[in-house]
């Protein structure tokens, strides 16, 4: 048995979620891919993939084997690169991003990444929940805020300012708040944390410090983009990350408020599993994410004196 080939097939099946897609990626027939994995299972004497008529999933032994096999394949890729200066294998990368980030920051720029790295096959998951990095086969996760899982590695890729906005029609009827305290007299729209279900605190910058405020609201959305749409419709005042309100502000559909209290926003991280050597595909994606964060036009929307600029 070609053990390395079997590892590649198994890892690709785990990444793709079924045999057909994995086989197509590797230039194999569905039957050949299945036979290779079955041969590996027979050699090991354990079931690695649990198959039903509707779905397949890794067993506990399969998840452990895939994780270790992925590390071995990454070591081989790193060895190839150290000798030739480039990877000899096509690499697959799974990136998970928050939904709004995926549409408004990543998607407009992703063509440049693929042009620079034609050897990388990229899958992008737009989800707002924290994944199981191993079971979900996520290589890089874009995550807003501090990381609680110390088994993972978080690399800071930047931040965006948090902007308070409302529609011109709303402000014409209710007036424009001049201070944070005046927001209490206004209709507010909250955004719910996708992981905790609670309303996110509003963020303001005052005296050089970030001030977090709980703002009770009659209307809340888990989707930040839905909250922006409601504000455009005149439902109230909302606070959101700069890239989510950039286009409506430019179009005049939303008006920035309390700009003297503009907060630079929470730090944004690229989260990865721990690797003995960080694979080329992950290093390339981290560099790309830092660059698109740094160069995104949302930084020029309002930020005074560079507030909210992300750092490389």
CATH superfamily of one domain: Periplasmic binding protein-like II
**Uncertain regions: pLDDT < 50 for 5+ in a row?**
303-312
How can the largest sheet be summarized?
A: 5 strands, mixed
| Outline | elongated
Going across the major beta sheet, what is the strand order? Answer: 4-3-5-14-6
The number of distinct β-strands equals 14
Quaternary structure type: single chain
Distance between the termini: 45 Å
- Proportion of residues in extended strands: 15-25%
Describe the structure.
The chain has 312 residues and is an alpha/beta fold. Among the domains are: 1-89, Winged helix-like DNA-binding domain superfamily/Winged helix DNA-binding domain (Arc Repressor Mutant, subunit A); 162-261, 3-Layer(aba) Sandwich (D-Maltodextrin-Binding Protein, domain 2), CATH 3.40.190.10. The protein has ten helices and 14 strands. A five-stranded mixed β-sheet has the order 4-3-5-14-6. A hairpin with a 2-residue loop joins β9 (202-206) and β10 (209-213). α1 packs across α2. The chain is elongated and about 75 Å long.
């Amino acid at each position: 048995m070609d053990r390395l080939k079997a590892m590649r097939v198994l890892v690709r099946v785990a990444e793709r979620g079924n045999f057909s897609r994995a086989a197509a990626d590797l230039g194999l027939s569905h039957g050949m891919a299945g036979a290779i994995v079955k041969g590996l299972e027979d050699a090991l004497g354990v079931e690695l993939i649990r198959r039903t008529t509707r779905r397949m999933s890794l067993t506990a032994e399969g998840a452990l084997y895939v994780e270790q096999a992925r590390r071995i394949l990454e070591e081989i890729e790193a060895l190839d690169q150290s000798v030739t200066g480039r990877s000899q294998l096509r690499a697959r990368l799974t990136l998970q991003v928050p939904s709004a980030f995926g549409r408004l920051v990543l998607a407009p720029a992703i063509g440049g990444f693929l042009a620079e790295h034609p050897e990388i096959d990229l899958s992008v998951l737009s989800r707002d929940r924290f994944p199981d990095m191993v079971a979900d086969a996520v290589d890089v996760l874009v995550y807003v805020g501090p990381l609680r899982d110390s088994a993972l590695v978080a690399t800071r890729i930047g931040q965006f300012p948090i902007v308070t906005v409302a529609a011109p029609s709303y402000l014409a009827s209710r007036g424009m708040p001049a201070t944070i305290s005046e927001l209490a007299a206004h209709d507010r729209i909250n955004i719910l944390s996708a992981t905790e279900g609670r309303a996110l605190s509003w963020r303001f910058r005052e005296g050089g410090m970030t001030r977090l405020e709980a703002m009770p609201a009659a209307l809340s959305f888990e989707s930040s983009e839905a909250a922006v749409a409601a504000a455009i419709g005149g439902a109230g005042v909302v606070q959101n990350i700069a890239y989510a309100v950039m286009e409506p502000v430019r179009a005049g559909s939303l008006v920035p408020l309390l700009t003297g209290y503009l907060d630079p926003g929470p730090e944004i991280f690229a989260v990865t599993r721990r690797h003995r050597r960080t694979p080329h595909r992950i290093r390339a994606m981290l560099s790309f994410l830092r660059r698109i964060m740094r160069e995104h036009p949302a930084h020029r929307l309002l930020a005074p004196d560079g507030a909210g600029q992300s750092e490389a």
